[in-house]
Amino acid sequence: MNNQRIARIIGSGSFLPEKVLTNKELESMVETSDEWIVTRTGIKERRVASEEEHTSTMGIHAAKAAMDNCNIDPLEIDLIIVATCTPDYLFPSTGALIQREIGATNAAAFDLQAACSGYIYALSIAKSYIESGFYKNILIVASEKISSIVDYEDRNTCVLFGDGASASVISHEGKGLEIRDVSIGTDGNQAELLILPGGGSRIPPSEQSLKDKQHFLKMEGREVFKHAVRLMEVAARQCLESFNLKGSDLAWLVPHQANIRIISAIAKRFGLKDENVHKTVHKYGNTSASGVAIALDELVQDKKVAKGENVLLVAFGAGLTWGASLLTQN
Ligand code: ACO
């Protein structure tokens, strides 16, 4: 008898704030144009959280939807991992706030910070815990209120980002997307390419740090772009090669939703047609850790992944971090 435990995504759900911020509206805020944004990024609009919506509250909506999706009771959840770079507070963790509100009183909870690669990093942890038998049911929540760290006077960054959340239940039982492999990596030599300098222990909030806008994210966009394509290709190849698969064996590529040109470049490197690449960047922009999870949830809810089909997730983010995960529907 084969007693090997298999980790699967058995339920998922997402939450997007109602407020839409269009390119037209951004034209009145900074010197930009709908034409520039669409041709350089593919983004047409993005969602922005209200003052009452937080990383935790968006995450709670997504978590409840994911648990409903697979009919699991919150008391059965053993661990909550929240992937975010915009936590409600530095501490307590957003995981603790979500645990309280969903009533998952048997679960341990922590936050994981790997920027846009956070969801894939969380999958690697969930897979290990479940396959080792340490835990049975894990809730991953990827939630971001990036609008809280965006300078809406900086056209280089403010057009790119949006808010949103997605959650997945990973279990040793039930049907869903088997997590066959996860590959993750980091290059700390590029740490300053994408950074939120202020608010931590190195530059605590002060009158000067606010004046210097250190509480807003800074990005060397062109440099990040170059690394993004290269690193996502490395991570994706590692996952595929460990199962002797090629791009043509994939039903779907679900890439990090940062820029349509990055997505096209990575799809081209694996010989994938446009119809095999799932995109949400046009309507949600870059929602950091939640981007790849929102896109995957959309595919699953639309029942677009058939039994036996392979899906490859791939992401990159500040750190620099990157990751890929090979999933198979069963
Ligand atoms: N509207 C109009 N012009 C603009 C805008 C804007 N919103 N933003 C920049 N420009 C200008 C620049 O000032 C520059 O002008 P200059 O030549 O006079 O200096 C010109 O457009 C070209 O700028 P580039 O930076 O070369 O533009 P590029 O084609 O590289 O596109 C972009 C910029 C969209 C940021 C691209 O580099 C990119 O997508 N990079 C990757 C960013 C990314 O994915 N980051 C997220 C990482 S994930 C995470 O962890 C959060």
Brief digest:
This protein has about 325 residues and is α+β, with helices and mostly antiparallel strands. It has helices at about 25, 35-40, 55-70, 95-100, 120-130, 155-160, 205-210, 220-240, 260-270, 280-285, 290-300, and strands spanning about 10-15, 20, 45, 80-85, 110, 135-145, 165-170, 175-185, 195, 220, 250-255, 310-315, 320-330.
Outline the low-pLDDT stretches: none
Strand content: 15-25%
**Backbone shape:** globular
Strand line-up in the sheet with most strands: 5-4-6-7-1-8-13-12-11
Task: Write structural notes for this entry.
It is a single chain. With 330 residues, the protein is α+β, with helices and mostly antiparallel strands. It has 2 domains: 8-174, Thiolase/Chalcone synthase (Peroxisomal Thiolase, Chain A, domain 1, 3-Layer(aba) Sandwich), CATH 3.40.47; 180-329, Thiolase/Chalcone synthase (Peroxisomal Thiolase, Chain A, domain 1). Helix content is 33%, strand content 23%. Helix 3 crosses helix 4 (94-102) and helix 8 (221-242) runs parallel beside helix 9. The longest helix is centred in the C-terminal third of the chain and has 22 residues, at 221-242. The two termini are 20 Å apart. Bound molecules: acetyl coenzyme *A. Residues 32, 36-37, 40-41, 115-116, 155-156, 159, 194, 219, 221-222, 224-225, 228, 258-259, 286, 288, 317-318 line the site of acetyl coenzyme *A (ACO). Residues 32, 36-37, 40-41, 115-116, 155-156, 159, 194, 219, 221-222, 224-225, 228, 258-259, 286, 288, 317-318 line the site of acetyl coenzyme *A.
